[in-house]
Specification:
The chain is an alpha+beta fold. Helices cover 50% and strands 8% of the residues. A hairpin with a 2-residue loop joins strand 1 and strand 2. The protein is globular, with a radius of gyration of 24 Å.
Length: 204
């Protein structure tokens, strides 16, 4: 009996060997636009600012969020010195209220509480420009609390007398707990672990 050559298994229709399904073989899918078309000058200037920032190594290596962290620290220190931290947190909540109302409306319409995390974390430059290593998982966001490097250097100079724990407990945690309340969800916000990581999850 002659041996049968090849396989009797039917080939998957619409999916050529070694390639994606035929319906995905379009220029838009295979080579999608960057979204920066027409903004080449903006990208160039932004990259120059990034390089100028990160090349600063003295008195400490700067990250791209350096100025944002210092601005927050300056405002928080002022609020602390004037016994206004609670008012400062409430002011932040009031300022964010229009955006929080929009997020709550989206959640109410869809029933999807994950949108609370999406809109408050990765959709918001105020977060991802400050916390550079956020890890995104369903119902969960984990990131390094970002102040240590800048805070340590500035404290040595006598600019601030804040601690990371104080920043988390008196400023960051009440702000984000308030955001959750405003959009109709509850956030579980962890303490910092031994690596400075904070985890935020949606409460059941």
């Amino acid at each position: 009996m002659a041996m049968m050559q090849g396989s009797n298994k039917p080939k998957k229709e619409g999916k050529p060997m070694g390639g994606p399904p035929v319906e995905m073989m379009t220029p838009e899918v295979l080579a999608p636009p960057t979204g920066m078309e027409g903004r080449e000058s903006d990208v160039s200037e932004s990259m120059q600012v990034l390089v100028r920032t990160m090349q600063i190594q003295i008195p400490y290596p700067h990250d791209m969020n350096d100025a944002l962290l210092k601005a927050h620290l300056t405002a928080i220190q002022f609020a602390k010195d004037n016994n206004m931290l609670e008012q400062y947190v409430q002011h932040d909540r009031d300022t964010m209220q229009p955006l929080l109302d929009r997020t709550k409306n989206m959640i109410d319409k869809t029933g999807n509480k994950e949108l609370a995390l999406v809109m408050i974390f990765e959709r918001t430059g105020c977060f991802f420009q400050m916390c550079l290593d956020a890890k995104i998982q369903p119902g969960k966001r984990t990131f390094t609390f970002p102040f240590k490097k800048v805070l340590d250097a500035a404290t040595r100079l006598g600019q601030f007398d804040l601690t990371e724990e104080e920043l988390l407990d008196k400023w960051w945690r009440p702000r984000y707990a308030g955001y959750g309340e405003a959009v109709g969800v509850e956030f579980n916000i962890s303490d910092m672990d031994e690596n400075g990581k904070v985890t935020v999850t949606l409460a059941d």
